[in-house]
């Protein structure tokens, strides 16, 4: 089966990889500080901290990331639209129903005889939309 294999492109053999082995180096130790002894008050504080008390681990609190200004603006815009929708006047509601009924009739290619059904369905949808906006905004 290996003989049936068709080679379309010849590739050059890969170059051998030479691994470099680094000599292990012993870690350097720091030289003790030269003749700088802590003050007596510091020495006492260090002795009392080490006297059987568990070491305190310093932790840092993660600060909440500031909100993305673009996202904040978008959320504000959405809240404004919901408030506007929740407080529509009767004339605006009627215009919304009229437009929705038009699009329903257009979807049916304006076939006659379904005008009342389109109007009722549009009215139901707009009223549900307004009710949801009122519920979401608490108005």
TrEMBL record:
Q: Which residue ranges are recorded for the region named Disordered?
A: 1-78
Q: By its UniProt entry, which InterPro entries does this protein fall under?
A: DUF2934 (IPR021327)
Q: Per UniProt, what is one Pfam family of this protein?
A: DUF2934
Bias (Low complexity) ranges: 9-20, 29-43
| Name of the protein this chain belongs to | DUF2934 domain-containing protein
UniProt source species: Caldichromatium japonicum
Lineage runs: Bacteria, Pseudomonadati, Pseudomonadota, Gammaproteobacteria, Chromatiales
């Amino acid at each position: 089966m290996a003989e049936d294999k068709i080679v379309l492109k010849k590739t050059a053999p890969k170059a051998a990889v030479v691994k470099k082995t680094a000599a292990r180096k012993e870690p350097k130790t720091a030289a003790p500080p030269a003749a700088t002894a802590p003050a007596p008050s510091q020495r006492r504080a260090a002795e009392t901290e080490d006297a059987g008390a568990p070491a305190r681990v310093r932790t840092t609190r993660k600060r909440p990331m500031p909100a993305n200004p673009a996202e904040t603006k978008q959320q504000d815009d959405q809240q404004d639209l919901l408030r506007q929708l929740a407080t529509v006047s009767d004339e605006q509601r009627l215009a919304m129903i009229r437009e929705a009924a038009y699009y329903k009739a257009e979807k049916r290619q304006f076939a006659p005889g379904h005008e009342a059904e389109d109007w009722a369905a549009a009215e139901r949808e707009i009223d549900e939309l307004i009710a949801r906006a009122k519920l979401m905004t608490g108005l």
